Amino acid sequence: MLFDSILGLFSVDMGIDLGTCNTLVCVKGEGIVLNEPSVVAVRKGTNQVLQDGNAVGLVAKEMLGKTPGSITAVRPMKDGVIADFDITEAMLGYFIRKVHGRRGFIRPRVVIAVPSGITAVEKRAVYGSAERAGARRVYLVDEPMAAGIGSGLPIAEARASMIVDIGGGTTEVAIMSLADISASESIRVAGDDMDEAIISHMKRTYNMQIGPQTSEALKIEIGSAAGLGEELSMDVRGRDMISGLPRKTVVSSEEIRESLREPISQIIDAVTHTLEQCEPELAADLVDVGIHLCGGGALLRGLDTVMADATGLSVCVVDDPLSCVARGTSVYLDNLSEWRDTLEADHDNM
After folding, report:
1. Mean pLDDT of the chain
2. Among 33, 60, 149, 193, whose Cα sits 20 to 30 Å from the Cα of 24?
């Protein structure tokens, strides 16, 4: 361990929020240095990454839905876990090389945030992919813990802190106290399911096929969980499912809100179920401190209001909700000497 700590002085150690939609990388002492989509462009039928292995992230996302028959733009993470091992390894390797560069000759130690509900097999997949991608040593931390730390919540104190992290593939709900999780629930319903709900609505209502980028734009621009003071509308372009020709139509925020009702209800159910598991004394704390929302889904208009109505607790969105998990992994990096034994014990139990 001492030798590993000495090597750490000469390597660019990094924390990674390996998300379904985006991957964020932070470096000790520098903060977040990379934020790119978790997308890879490969030659169809192979795992060969295009452009000499550089068609990853922002470059690859531009290709989504626009590739010729010989090229496929894929997202190797699904529901917060690895869906394609080889492509995830290539993506991780690209991000690690891009951040590490020539700043160190020693391979980096890496802290990776993973959903709290993933299996031991899925954890081993993340661990193995990161090692093969160039990490000297890999530590895994639960996303809710990283989110709580990155949000500045007092999770080490003897009182409750509650975080709801709505990402692309998973929603993580956790009540924490004394630097551990007291009650939690991890569901594979999140931002991607909201996008799919909008795509289904457009098919059902307008006989129009739209892509995931258009669906995401609709969610961001006019999506909401609660009624708006002034309802919005947006021009949507896609392919007519009957004629097969391109066309456009106008969609209102009311109908997008209705299409999002089901995934939002499932997220609210996960929150209430977690509260039902909570110890009475911790529940009493939450009456005062409330619930903290983070992740991309936290930015959906009115979600805090709907959740507050359903739970009777105050709900607030944390500062910079998109990066709090990555910031939390950075704090883990800063305290590896103190927390390493706990993280390694978790790995030994996989």
Report:
1. 88
2. 193
Beta strands in 29-179 (DSSP E): 31-37, 40-43, 71-74, 77-78, 81-82, 109-114, 137-142, 161-166, 171-177
Q: Residue 268's CB: how many other CB atoms inside 10 A?
A: 18
CATH topology of domain 159-189+262-317: Nucleotidyltransferase; domain 5 (3.30.420)
Three-state DSSP state, 46? coil
pLDDT of res. 311? 97
CA distances 275 to 15, 22, 115, 316, Å, are 30, 29, 19, 17
Tell me the C-alpha distance between 191 and 188, whole Å.
10
Element (H, E) at 259: helix 253-259
Q: Tokens 């669906």 correspond to what residue? A: 215
Decide: 322 and 32 in contact? Cβ < 8 Å: no
What is the pairing mode between strands 180-187 and 171-177? antiparallel
Count of C-beta atoms within a 10 Å radius of residue 54: 14
Which of 136, 114, 162, 190 lies closest to 279 in space, CA to CA?
162
Q: Do domains 2-146+324-348 and 159-189+262-317 have the same CATH topology?
A: yes
Domain 191-259 has CATH 3.90.1150.30: no
Structural domain boundaries of the chain?
2-146+324-348, 159-189+262-317, 191-259
Q: Which long-range contacts (CB under 8 A, 24 or more apart) does 245-249 make?
A: 247/208, 249/206, 249/208
Reduce the DSSP state of residue 39 to 3 states and report it. coil
Q: How many Å apart are CA 292 and CA 163, to the nearest integer? A: 5
CB contact at 8 A, 222 and 253: yes
Tokens of residue 47, six digits: 């795992």
Q: What is the pLDDT of residues 76-113, one digit of tens each?
A: 888 878 888 888 888 988 898 888 775 556 788 899 99
pLDDT tens-digit readout, 236-286: 999 999 999 999 999 999 999 999 999 999 999 999 999 999 999 999 999
Residue 220: CB atoms within 10 A of its CB come to 12
